Structure formats: structure tokens, C-alpha cells
Amino acid sequence: MHNKVIVCLLFLAYLPLITCNASLTLVSQRSSCSWRVRIAFALKGIELGPSPSQSYQRWGSAEQYKGLNPMQQVPAVQIDGITLSQSLAVIQYIEETRTGHRLLPADPKKRAQVRMISDLITSGIQPVQNLYVLQKVGAEKVQWTHHFIQRGFEALEPILKGTAGKYCVGDEISMADICLVPQVYNAERFKVDVDQFPTIKRLNQTLLKVGAFKESHPSCQLDTPAEICT
Ligand SMILES: N[C@@H](CCC(=O)N[C@@H](CS)C(=O)NCC(=O)O)C(=O)O
Which letter does DSSP use for residue 122 in this model? Predict the structure, then answer.
């Protein structure tokens, strides 16, 4: 068969996956990583599945959940016939397959800055405050978490001072903003004084007024524990 015909047939075969509404199961809890994904879906205007928010403990058992995400972390998202863990992979997948609000800027320099900020937060700060890590740290866990978020924000503040407009990079909401707000939420939980970081504080306050950030907030999810419901 002619090459162009094969390409065309392949395109037609995959078209439903690209255009149809996804069947989604987001397995999450009060986690900053899951909140990232909820914000991204809300910005893109994609509906989440019928059970959007369940911790893996409630999903069945940790052993069963392993089949979904061998790292036994949240989130895990089932979309278009595949299961994805890793919040940034999920966010970038919906950016590449869905229309709606753009999560990565067109300009390569801004796009790189968005990735730099996202990576700083998701690789440089969040992993060391993970539940699994904190269980190993033991009694010192509050000081430990406070120390690493403080250190991360000391690096993030001057970077954001240089890149931010209304939002983290320029004046468009991007993946960087999606990573920032849940991390500030964690910082506040661990009593980091965000007043020390005026750019981070301003961006967080601005973003928390945006619908996608408000509706995806941990305080208003189906399984939100009563003590954090607002
Ligand atoms: N890099 C992963 C990190 C996932 C992750 O650390 N999830 C946390 C919640 S934010 C978790 O499930 N922690 C439980 C544990 O590690 O036991 C992502 O971005 O999705």
C-alpha cells in the first residue's frame, strides 16, 4: 500500500482517541501531586470520571493499587486506554492531545522556563516531603519538611521574580502555576512563612482566585476529610 494511504488510515484509526471525551479515573487524595492534575483538567475543561478522588488505601488495598501504579503513589489516571502515573506526564499528555487552555507557552524560552519551575518544585521540593520519606525520617519530620520547602522557596523566589508577569511565566497560566499553588498549600501546612517570599505569595493569591484552582482545591473534593473542609 502507498505510504500516504497507510499514514492516513493510521490517523483515522487513532482519531477517536484524540478527539473523544476521555474515560478518566483519577485516583487521588489530599495530595499536591493529584491537585496538579485536577487543576490541569479543570483548565482544559475536561470532566473527571465518576470517582475522582480516592486514596489508594480506599481504592482496595495497597497491593491492588500497585497494579495501577507500581510506585504506589497518587495520582494515577486512566485515559484513552492507558494508565499514567507521574503528574507532569499526565499534564503534558492532555496538553498534547486536548484543546482548551494552553499549559505550555508557544515560545521555546518561556516553555523552558515553565519546565524549569515545574521541575524545581516537582523534583527539587515535593519528593523530600513525601509521606514515604517522612515515615522514614520519623520524629524529625516537621523540621525536615520545613527545612526543604524553605530551601526550595529561597531558590524559587528569585527565579519567579525574573520570569513572572501576572502568573509564574508572563501573563498566561501554565504548568508552572499548576505546580506552584499545591506546593504553597503544603508549605503553609508545614508552617513555612510565605510572607518571606513576596513573588510566590502574590502569585499564589492571584491564582487561588481562578476558577480552575478554586474548584480543584483539596478542601472541596468528594473525600475531603472533615477537618480540612472549608
Ligand atoms: N513524581 C510523582 C510524585 C507522586 C507522589 O509523590 N505522590 C505522593 C502524593 S503528592 C504520594 O502518593 N505519596 C504517598 C507515598 O509516597 O507513600 C508525580 O508527580 O506524580
Answer: I
